[in-house]
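User: Some background: our group keeps a shared notebook of sequences we're curious about, and every so often someone picks one and asks for a predicted structure to add to the entry. Today it's my turn. The entry only has the sequence so far, pasted here. Could you supply the structure so I can complete it?
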Amino acid sequence: MIERIEGIYDRLTKAEKKIADYILERPEDVIHYSISEFAKIVGVGEATVHRLVKKIGFEGFQKFKIELAKEVSQMEITFVEDPLDELVSELDYMVKSVRSLVKREELCKAVDFIVNANKIVFFGVGLSGVTANYGSVKFSMLNIPSFYYNDPHLQVIVGVNLTPKDVVVAISHTGNIRDTVKSTSVAKDVGAKTIVITSGINSPLSELGDVVLYTKSPFKKDIYYFMRGNIGELVMVEILFRMTLSRIASEKKEDFSKMSDVLRPKRF
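Assistant: Of course. Here's the predicted structure to add to the notebook entry:
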């Protein structure tokens, strides 16, 4: 539930963000309040609390509190004073959180798309472009034609020329980047399969995915969160790569041996 709140945070109203901030900072307190008490403490109307709870996926505040209480009971509280320890703890938390968000059936469907594709095209801009590049390199190692494009104009040009036998992997941390959404929409319109990797739950990009692989989002209240955002996406690309490798390893053994022979002379 915490991941879900963080995933929709960008699209909340100012009043809804006040509620979300309180829940994320003091979840253990929220479970003890009635809706009227909670609304008064946060300084919003009860209707606003209802609206946010519904956006999170619950019909009522009571059901929301029951699920929140379950989640609070499973939280690990750690205290770190050293900046390096804090960084390592944060990265470890990010990676572990991706595991909690992974849906096996969605990953298997994505692998099905990939192993049956004529080619895979990765779309992403900024840091997500770096992740897209990483993905195209990894899947090229599997002898699957893989390409990446971080230029929005090229993405549209490539997208409109795809076919139903091609797969687009669209990567955006927030899921709200207009260029990536537009390019993915163009590809989907011509019949290409779409795999979306994002932390933006119910974001414009996630609406375009035949498969959506959600990742962990750092808390948006941190003004520098955009600098810390692609760890989850990189992890998800790696998971997708390794699941695909596992699926095709036996039939591609000869190809992998040839690649190993070609790469060996390049090492000292």
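Suggested note for the entry: The mean pLDDT is 85. The two ends are 49 Å apart (CA to CA).
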